[in-house]
Every structure is written in structure tokens, then in C-alpha cells.
## 1
Amino acid sequence: MILLKRLFLFIIIVLFACISCGGFLDKDISSKSLDINALFDTILSRPILPSDDISSNTICTDYSRQGLLIIRYNNKMNTNYKFKLQVIKDENTINYNIKGNGLMEKFPLQYGDGKYTARILKNIRDDEYISIDEKVFWVQLDNQNIVFLNSVQNIDWDYSMAPRYISCLE
């Protein structure tokens, strides 16, 4: 009897979750895509995506007003070293893995306005790294929320990509 009650409760929760996220009864994806596009067009100002012709600097801050740091580090020695980007602002430090292949990699400046330090680090052994490039710069964001809309290293997108509607049942 207890097992039957638990199963019934589970089914009710799943049905409620599917209905509340909007994909249970309505499968018209095109109208939902239009609604999403309208939301982005009217409520959110779109960030300016960097072109491929950005500064040749290893640490490019040309888009810092949009909350974006661009790294273009090229490991010309073709060694098996690991590389990291370290971003520091006040007492906040975050480390990202970077490829070191010379291609543009984008990272968020998520700690708001102020003085940042960006460092390219090279792994020399175990968990020891040395700084091979560093840049100190000031950030004055155009909009405090724009940083969360950027295309970044692990969420790469551009405006040619259509938004997707994902149903609970997919």
C-alpha cells in the first residue's frame, strides 16, 4: 500500500512538472520560438559579439564594457603543457582551462565594475603553475546584466542560431 501511494505521488509530481513547464499539451515549437525571439528583442538588449578581427593581444580587453574577456594564446612550442586563465577581482579568483591553440576563447567578467587582473598560467608540474602573461585593466560595464548574455567558452553561440524550445517530455 505504501509503495502504491509513493508511485501515485511520483506520477502526480511528474505530471505537474510537465504541465507547468509548458510542453505537455502544446507541441507547437514555432510559436514558442517566436515568443522567445520577441522576449529577447523587446526586453533584453543584445550583447555585441566580437568579430574575428579582434586585437592581436594575447589578453584582449576590447569588449570589457560588455563583460567579455577574450584570450588568444598560442602555444608555439607545441608542448603538452596545460594552460589556465586566472581572472582576479578584489578577493575573487576564478581559473579557467584554456586550449592554447591560438583560437579566440571568450570568458565572462562576472564580478562587475572595477579593477581586474588576467593571467595566462602554464603548468610546470603537478599542481604548480607559472604566469607567462598578465594584464591589469579596469572594467566599467555598460549594463550589469549583459555579462550573463555573452557567448563564452563553454556556451558558444551566435545570432544565426535559432532559440530552442525544450519540452519536459523530450
## 2
Amino acid sequence: MLLTTLILLPILPIIHTSSAAKIEWNRTYGGKSFDAIESVIAVPDGFVLAGSTYSFGDGSKYSDAWLIKTDKEGKELWKLILRSGIATSLVKVEDGFVVAGYDYSDKSAWLVKVKVGEESGFGFGIKAGIAGLAALALVLILIALRRRG
């Protein structure tokens, strides 16, 4: 198979194309309210998407951060509500994923570690603002450098 490209559109579908730009599959995720995908990574058995949802979660006026795991054809395998907020990026680590995001309700930035196969993780907040976002960026850079060895 030739090089593939993953395209995200604002209405949440994922479209998988070949190098000749022929659509191989198209999936849409979410519920009846506003939902958004902010980040996606490819994993050996499919994709992991991170974003926010108003359709699922605690039903408050704020969105909830969520992860979606799909197979290679984009079929949803599981979804996980992480906490209040928006998941903006994620990286694969040895035993799961580290997800970064922010929360409008308490104005904080956060990281959550999710172990594969478990619907729980641990997280900590960093107060938002320039210093908080800079600290979050530094943590993500260190994680990326560690992955490279």
C-alpha cells in the first residue's frame, strides 16, 4: 500500500486516502451535541483521537475531554471521558497514552496518563497562563525526546 494521509474536517469525519487521493473510508464520531477532534495519532492497530464532547460526559455547561480508539478502518472500539475540558494533544507511551488539554471551568492546563485497557488514569493540573502553558509545552517536549531515546 502506498503512503497514506489522514485528513480531519471540522464536522468530525475522518477520511483515509491513498497517495492517489482515493477515499478508502469515511467515519463520523460524536453524538447529538457539539463534539470536536483536536488531535489524532496512528497506532499499529488503528488510530487514537483526542478532543472534546458535549454529547457524552457529565452534562455540565463545559465540554468534557475524551479519547476515541478506532481500528484501522476507523470503526470505534472504545471511547473514554477523561475529565472536564478539552483534550488538545496526545502521545503514545510504552503502556498507553499521555493526553494534554485545558479546562475552561477552572482555567487550568492538565496532563492525564491513560493505561491501555483501563478506563482510568492519573492527572495533575498546571494553572493556565503563559507560565503554565510553557511548563506544559516543556513536559510534552521532554516526553517526545524520551520516546526518541
## 3
Amino acid sequence: MLAIEKLNQFYGESHTLWDLDLGVPAGQCTCVMGRNGVGKTTLMKAIMGEVAVKSGQLRYQGDGSEIELTKKAVEARSRMGIGFVPQGRQIFPLLTVEENLRTGPGRPGRRAEKKPRAYLRAVSGAERDEAPPGRRFIRRATAAARHRPRAGDRA
């Protein structure tokens, strides 16, 4: 589903990802582990298009066709079904649960179901942790990167 070959990324003169190769088959979970500063976050950002790559290939197979991602914008990657749950809550605390789940781009032609009015209230502490992964499920992401999951996290 995701194939990374000879990926190189730089921040200025600093070479952060060096000829990285990684394959993530469809239906599989892959964990990227390492000490601080080895490029885990940079890899997630490169997959999502948040940082530019200098060379290499990022290929994604979704909807039956293989697509080269390195020149695709973040929005295009999201529309293809690639999701990213960043570190931290990154929610809007004054919005309701439903409003937080609706933030960000959705999949084309998809509409979130209307929920009973009882669910439209402020976000509790536990829900603040659940909202970012929930956004990914609402968008029906077919591939997802979870940045720094913790014990007890779902998805």
C-alpha cells in the first residue's frame, strides 16, 4: 500500500532522512521506533507532504492504482485516504465533539452523519484525546500515521 524507496530529506544543509526504504503492506501496522532526532517525525511529515523531499519515491496504492506522492500536495494526499494523527491533541477546545470531528478536509462525496442534539456539547478531557484519531475515521482514511501514540490510545 505504501512503498518508500531511497527517500532523502533535508532541512537546509542538514540531511535528515538518508536513502530510506520502507514498505507498508495493505492491512498491516508498521511501527517506526528510534531515539530522539533520528527522523521519525520527519518521515511522518514527508509521507503527508508537510516537508519536501529532495529525492526518492513515495508510492501509495489506493483505489487500485499506484500513485507517486512526492509531488502531491497535503490536501491531495488527504483526499486519497492518507491520514495523520499528530502528536498532541490539536483540537479546538471551545468547539463541540461533533464540530471537532468535522474540522479538516473530508473525503469527496462523503457527509458526516447528523448526531442527536445531546452530543453537541463542550469537549471533555478524554474526548480531547479521542478527537484527533476520530477525525481520521470520519474521513475514512485507508492509510494512517499516528505520531507518538501513548498507552491507552486508540487507533
## 4
Amino acid sequence: MSKNIFSKLNRKLLAVHFIVLVAFMFYACKNSDNQLVENSEIKEKIEASDRLLMHTVFLNLKDSISQEDKAYALNELKKLKDIPEVMSFVVGTKANTGDPRLNKTYDLVLQMSFKNIEELKLYDKDSLHSEVRKKLKNLLAGPPEVYDYWSN
């Protein structure tokens, strides 16, 4: 009989140890995941501080617009360089170089750089940016294509 009681106590003790071990492992894994997320966010911030966020926008104009409208669109886009968060700015027209790989779906392109994502977001909310978007909307054949990347 004493052997039977010992065996029951042993199983209960093992069960308690098992539950404690599983709880510890779950807690450790949960914290490990959070630590990984925090470390990757810190790493990205450190890496981003050494690089610029490049924002490239491709615009396709309606086929029906005149050369004057195209010049108007270019002049409006040039105003965007005056937004304080913009570090560098280039705007231009498609260069027909004869390269068969040339993307023929856009007419105008602009590229600018920002210190970080927060500054890009401030630029996006800037009233001048909103004004230029409204002025060009009726000249565009469709929505712009945007490519954002970190410079190396």
C-alpha cells in the first residue's frame, strides 16, 4: 500500500514539474519572440540611419493631353522639391533610348530621398504635395506607380 501511495505522489509531482516546465518554456519562447522583434527593429533603425529612403514615382499621362499640359505637369512636380523633408529631388521625362527592356508605361518620373520613413510620411501629408496631386489628377491616365527603397 505504501508503494501505491508513493507511486501516486510521484506521478503528481512529475505532472507538476511537467506543467511548470511547459509554462517556463512558453514564457521563454514568448519573450524570445519579442526580443527578436525588438532586435530587428533596432537593427533596421541603425541601418536606416546610414542610408536614405529613396521614393520613386512613375506617372502615366493621358494620351490626349497637349505638350503644354505635359510642361505644366513637370512644373507642378518641380514644386515638390520645396517641401522641407525632401533631401534630394529629380524629375524628368522618359528617355527613349532604344533599349527593348524600357518600360513604356510611364511618361514622367520623379525621385526624391528622405532621411527616414517618418519624413516620407510628413511629405505625404504636406499641403503642397496634396495640392500638386489634385492639380495633376485629371492629366493622369491612372494611379502612379511608387517604388520605395533604401539606398546602400
